[in-house]
DNA sequence: TTTAGCACTCTTTAAGTTTAATTGCTAAAA
DNA sequence: TTTTAGCAATTAAACTTAAAGAGTGCTAAA
């Protein structure tokens, strides 16, 4: 995938990326030479840097400024050079204990996790609810709330539930409700929502005329679940305060981007939906790899968590100059905890 | 409440507040004199300004800067001087049509309204869900979802619903569920949740031992509703992008405050809970009147909306230099639409 | 192959200067 | 008595200039 770099080139590239991640200042040859890791004069290092720039791993803004990694440089660093610099134990403990403390009641888990991740990572953290559309249908229940309101309760195997409120013309007969839900549960239980949506015509197209209204509500409910995930997915966003402490947001214009990002959920939903979904494991997307003008200066690290039969996503978004290995460890760790707890 | 001001003083104060709201620049005597509204020389106006400053309606940062209203100045303006400068028709139309277009399905209404208000007001907009705790209890329904999960559905008179998921040790007998919910609904229907919470001991303390578990879940559900409203109320916040276009947020430090505000919902929940609740009508709180360090430079305009038996709040938060009359009209208008629609 | 030396570039910072806005005061005018 | 013109004083903001500092690229020597 990449041109082979000599060991010296690798060492120097790594050194530059790490320093830049740490300090946010362009890195000069003199500084690297003095740091001690490498026993070469600034002049030699300059030659290597020049080569690396030729190969498009580095760039610099003006003659008298140090070098800065390009997207390609970051990518090489992430793929080939990065330490598996797991969280230092103290951070791990903090994360663990905060996640333990969080009273993990339904739904609020995700809100809480996004807050904690934001606080610890100092990046924007995004946690999605689980994608019910992947779930296995367990049971439908219909509840008459009043003469004109009916509550549709769809539950899936892992115990997660989605409720939807419908207006109906007149209160529906209890025994009829029971009969129809019985049939639906019997015929469709155990199938995935996706499968149900695809094939409901064949499977329940035969139901008598007087069940139509109920069946339609069921189908509408499932459609709503899918539509929400596509457009209006509930996302929990944390770290919006914390990320402002990073040096890239010292000037007025750059913070607008990131605030816009968190303000307009549309963008974020789009981003989340583009992330590799099913796979377990971590995905890293750097700058231009995001294929989005607004995200040119940012990187996204993401993974998924699993609750029974469904998955959800967790992501961190921040300046490309982020501590990739730490963020990756943090996500892995968090994902594991959610998966185990629920 | 205030010292009497002469007509001349009133006119000039009003002129200054309006100009400052419009331009965000301190207002000088020369500028006012030239504007034409007042036929006096700058020197005379300076004398009046000096008096107004003496009375603490105005202040100025340095000798060579124009005057700026104090909190007291804004307050006098809002109470005594302000035009009922209703929304200009075009804005009214935009607001109306956007609120009409918004597909007003449950819950999402509030999210949508907060977005629209944010966009039009260019201030931070906050919309709370209705405070169910004020509602009249209509009906309890219990739904077995699996052997270990039970869904509690509490509905109130206006048709609003709150669902909560409970873990139970073993599936509860359907006929028993029906019996107990029957009793609860019969005895408690028509009472407010607050009343139920206050007096449930007298009213349902006698229920047999084997109903205890169910009764407890009901009580827990109501407690949860109250607790959420006190601490974790769901609020929809809009305008976070839009408010950044205002001149006060040109410099780096001031925007942090406002972002912090929207980032940490705790603060906002607190603010919302302090707002006058029941009353209809508009409340305005200016700078130091907020009794909150973080809100010293901001004003809050708020009102409530009504859905059947419950109320919710809408607020706009922005720099003290906000267009009060317009914001007030906007809130009134929005509140009326929500109240009528739902 | 590596390094020392040096001119050159460009940013950042500091200091100084000018400009423009506004006030407060005094004395004259209405 | 009220209003106004005139003017010195004050100060922020904008602009200018100068100096300092960091880093590169190139050349020639080690």
Low-confidence stretches of chain A: none
CATH fold-level label of the largest domain in chain A:
Beta-Lactamase
CATH top level of the largest domain in chain A is: Alpha Beta
Summarize the amount of helix of chain A as a percent range: 40-55%
The largest sheet of chain A is: 5 strands, antiparallel
How far apart the termini of chain A lie comes to: 39 Å
Q: Examine the secondary-structure arrangement and name the CATH architecture of the largest domain in chain A.
A: 2-Layer Sandwich
Q: Mind telling me the CATH superfamily name of the largest domain in chain A?
A: GAF domain
Individual helix count of chain A: 12
Q: Using the CA coordinates, give the radius of gyration of chain A.
A: 26 Å
H and E string of chain A: HHHEEHHHEEEEHHHEHHEEEH
Strand order of the largest sheet of chain A: 7-3-10-9-8
The quaternary organization reads as: homodimer
**Percentage beta strand of chain A:** 15-25%
> What do the pLDDT scores of chain A average to?
88
**Secondary-structure class of chain A:** alpha+beta
Total beta strands of chain A: 10
Which two chains share the most extensive interface? A-B, 33 and 32 residues
Keywords:
homodimer; 342 residues; alpha+beta; Arc Repressor Mutant, subunit A; Beta-Lactamase; Enolase-like, domain 1; five-stranded antiparallel sheet; three-stranded antiparallel sheet; 12 helices; 10 strands; elongated; DNA-binding
